[in-house]
Amino acid sequence: MALQTLSRLMCGALAAAALVSVAPMASANDDDVWPALRSELFGNRPIVEQSTLFTVDAPYRADDAAIVPITVKLPASAGDVRKLTLVVEKNPAPMAASFTFGAAAATGERVIQTRLRFDMYSNLRAVVELADGSLHMTTRFVKAAGGCSAPALKDADEALALIGKSHIKDVAALDSGAGGSTAARIGQVMVRHPNYSGMQMNQLTGLYIPAKFVTAMTVQRGADTVFDLEAGISLSEDPNIRFTYLAAGGASLSVTTTDSDGRVFKAATPPAGS
Amino acid sequence: MGKSPPDDRHNDRLRASYKPSQSPSRSAGSLPGRRDVVLGATAAVGALLVRPSPAFITSAHAAVPMVLQTEEVAPGVFVARGVHAVMSGDNGGHIANLAFVVGRERVAVIDTGGSFKVGMALLEAIRTRTSLPVGVVINTHMHPDHVLGNAAFEGSPSAGSKSAAPGSTGPAVEFIAHQKMARGLSARADRYLEHNGAAIGAGFEGTRVVLPTRTVDTAAEVDLGGRTLLLQAHATAHTDNDLTIRDLETNTLFAGDLLFSGHIPTIDGSLRGWLKVLDQLVKQPVARVVPGHGPASMTWPDAVEPQRRYFEMLTNNIRGLIKQGRSLEDALYAAARDNLVGWELSQEYHKRNVAVAFAELEWE
């Protein structure tokens, strides 16, 4: 719920002012939105900044603001990672994705790759929560603009016609060099969805195209969860996530996706031996 | 092909709501409305999208006149070549090839440039070649460098002036485009005006979006009086609203941005779709082609070969990476090694093409 609230609060200057008023710790500097965001998302829990526990790859200058590739690598040495949250600080709805890892997530090195929208030049904040409850953050600055309000859709008819079409697949073994878990593999999930941000205006009608986006996703190996994802409009059109998981016999991978209209989409890899 | 009935009263009301003289008085400190003048739902086609000019229009730069050189590539077919660059104050938004075809009774304009000023300069160039009125303005697709000069041609064709004189008589200039163009341009209009206004600066004064008044679903003919243009709407390729024009008298094909030469192609639709459309276009036995970016005129179909080779390189490289289970990041990294000899602006657009193509091809 907090995330939904945050989305609404961050839409428009007046709402932003309201957010600041309930967050007395916010900086006087208008550009520094992080203190208010941090307070909304993590309360007053301490966060280790400039963490060296894990790495985040993001292009300094993105080629397409609507498809900015992000890679988070959580080495085995990071410990027991429970949660990974990605925040595009200057976006209208900054909380892009929050992954909660389950029993089938890889135990050694863990990798998450996805694609985000950037509405303007912004910090990307990646915050990891360990089993002991501690929070660790890495920040990257990305130069990209126009990803939220500009329609990324290359073919508007196709985007709606194919909505919900989903694929999940095993891609390859994770090549993490010596010491990596031998059972760790890379999987990928792809969902056709326009992920309308609610900020794209149809000037033929003068109306904003209603928000319609992926809100949640669960990826499982057999009956075990690889991750649960809570998502916002900062996730790119056609959400696409590569993840590491622990292979177990012939257990298949499956994905269940929910969007803001309450629609549910499912896909699975074929059972072993088929 | 559908032609929307003109609703003059409604359009007049819309025009009346646009008061250019008010724009400069807009206070720099006032909050710019995101939507500016919002049109009613009934304004669907033929509406004006009005955006007040930015407050910097008093700069001397705005006063520098722009002169477009045109080349007669075939009898009655004139092309003003755009430079291969991103929009800037230096080029004023004239970065795409613009053309006009002179019939016996009227003139057809094909694309109008990246600003009102370019559109006005094109109108001046037409006046040096013919005194016939501009009867139709055809946009090959929604992109700003092709459509943002439209407003220069609005109003009475015989006056050829920038704005409709109240009570003017005679038919209005028709603005023709692909059936999906208005939707695509409308959804992007705010961004186009904002970004290109920032890039061009003072020379962007007066620029606004003018949507089509007549649309093409599959094919249509335009009569210029003793001279016929054949319009063809295409499936998603460069964009989802590409339209090509063929002048039957000289057998000249205006390919719009379905053909780039020298300037690296930019994909805003579908790579696979574009290749399919090219397969159809090369079968058209035309004498010459006018690309959207490149020389004023080229021979057909060999003009398309470098572009086709670029697309095949993209397709093969990216399919190979996807087959190996590689990621978008890997593809962007690998793109640095691609052979881009002969393509201008590859720094600006190649990696974006790779990202767009990857996102498309991974669904195969």
User: What is the CATH class designation of the largest domain in chain A?
Assistant: Mainly Beta
Number of helices of chain A: 4
Number of strands of chain A: 17
Q: Roughly how much helix do the residues of chain A carry, as a percent range?
A: 10-25%
| Inertia-based shape of chain A | globular
- Which CATH architecture of the largest domain in chain A? Sandwich
Radius of gyration of chain B from CA coordinates: 20 Å
Describe this structure in words.
The complex is a heterodimer of chains A (274) and B (364). Chain A is mainly beta and 274 residues long. Chain A has two domains: 1-43, no CATH class; 45-268, SoxY domain (Immunoglobulin-like, Sandwich), CATH 2.60.40. Chain A is 12% helix and 39% strand. Chain A contains four helices and 17 strands. In chain A, the strands form three sheets. Chain A has a nine-stranded mixed β-sheet, covered by helices on one side. In chain A, strands 2-3-6-15-10-9 form a six-stranded antiparallel β-sheet, with no helix packed on it. In chain A, strands 11-12 form a two-stranded antiparallel sheet. In chain A, strand 4 and strand 5 (95-101) form a beta hairpin. The longest helix of chain A is centred in the first third of the chain and has 9 residues, at 13-21. Chain B is of the alpha/beta class and 364 residues long. Chain B has helices spanning 8-16, 116-127, 144-147, 181-200, 271-281, 305-323, 328-334, 346-361; strands at 2-3, 48-49, 71-74, 77-80, 98-102, 107-110, 134-138, 174-178, 209-210, 214-216, 219-223, 228-233, 243-247, 252-260, 288-293. In chain B, a hairpin with a 4-residue loop joins strand 13 and strand 14. Chain B is globular, with a radius of gyration of 20 Å. Mean pLDDT of chain B is 83; it is low at 1-60 and 158-169. Chains A and B meet through helix 4, strand 9 and strand 11 of A and helix 4, helix 7 and helix 8 of B.
